[in-house]
């Protein structure tokens, strides 16, 4: 935390269509993780500012909920084009503040852009049901009504994609929104919100505040907020879910993971090794869907040496230079990853590849850790039991597919898993027997396109409805059922009937 300096840009709040300088006395530096350069300072919004943002959203809801569906959809058609037109600038900002390579930053934005495009189809997604003559002259129909003010709390690792998972679908459904991006890297999110206003989102429909635990708690507690969407750590997500639901809100919390990639010896070796490396080390391992645990089954255990050899050739550097891996997001993140590696060795793991001593020319202060592989890992070791969130691949041995399935199912997390094989029978058995929300067959990171929803399970998710897809429409709406009868004339009214029947 620092006191503001007039020479460094400050990150504004968005309240009721106005970009405002916060009155807060608590600020945080936004740092370039490759250089430690201070890019901006972000405020931790005051309680009054959070209340003002919610009040603006509450005030805008009355008119926004009655805005025709087509008018809402056209805003997101414009937004997707604005994002495409500004892709290079958005990616450069994301890379500077988060550390991702430029290519990966574009991928981050593009996966969010897909949800914006999906929001533009809200007309078919928000349709209700109708049944005629369910009783004598009685019709029943249902409509999906917006909830009111909704809120989103987003993480540092996808500062473009996750906000775009949240506010477009909520707003397209007729709600208004208060967004709290990560205080570590809010700059690209601010630019996306500016584009959303340019696309035509009215004042008060989308608001943005910044901050830490106090702001999160204020959003969970505010009586006018009806639903909260969260992506982040298990610790914070559990807190948000418990606090928000105790306050009577809907909540969906996508949290931590320990994703296993199971490799059978009949898999295409070259293709599998390449996909494993990309899924484990992309974004420096800072993905909740990273394939951080590789389970080598039977004869595939002999592939370890080649896996390490390929990983050793991966390049590390500043994201703007487009290496294979960029830096970790912060000095604290780097120190945690280094301590986890050391703890793994202490507990008996073997360093098949050690990336701790990596140095990047021209960037002496960068938060770099090279690709690291720990083998001979077993459950009970800290590196297996906890999410490392860094460029560290854990390798576990299994004798059979059944043993691998049991290993995956015994892990408390259920975000994603993958199987690499050329056997359709093995793939079918894996898909049926595995207890994980998202399954890939020869696909290492099985995050679905927005036609479907993100379906992490067990310890990786709280709430029964996921983000984007049809599920999120149900999350951001409530079903209203109308039963009606029209009488043609007075003679058809009939007699008094005290039974429950509609006939």
From TrEMBL:
<dbReference type="InterPro" id="IPR015590">
    <property type="entry name" value="Aldehyde_DH_dom"/>
</dbReference>
<dbReference type="InterPro" id="IPR016160">
    <property type="entry name" value="Ald_DH_CS_CYS"/>
</dbReference>
<dbReference type="InterPro" id="IPR016161">
    <property type="entry name" value="Ald_DH/histidinol_DH"/>
</dbReference>
<dbReference type="InterPro" id="IPR016162">
    <property type="entry name" value="Ald_DH_N"/>
</dbReference>
<comment type="similarity">
    <text>Belongs to the aldehyde dehydrogenase family.</text>
</comment>
<protein>
    <recommendedName>
        <fullName>methylmalonate-semialdehyde dehydrogenase (CoA acylating)</fullName>
        <ecNumber>1.2.1.27</ecNumber>
    </recommendedName>
</protein>
<feature type="domain" description="Aldehyde dehydrogenase">
    <location>
        <begin position="19"/>
        <end position="482"/>
    </location>
</feature>
<dbReference type="InterPro" id="IPR010061">
    <property type="entry name" value="MeMal-semiAld_DH"/>
</dbReference>
<keyword id="KW-0520">NAD</keyword>
<keyword id="KW-0560">Oxidoreductase</keyword>
<dbReference type="InterPro" id="IPR016163">
    <property type="entry name" value="Ald_DH_C"/>
</dbReference>
<dbReference type="Pfam" id="PF00171">
    <property type="entry name" value="Aldedh"/>
</dbReference>
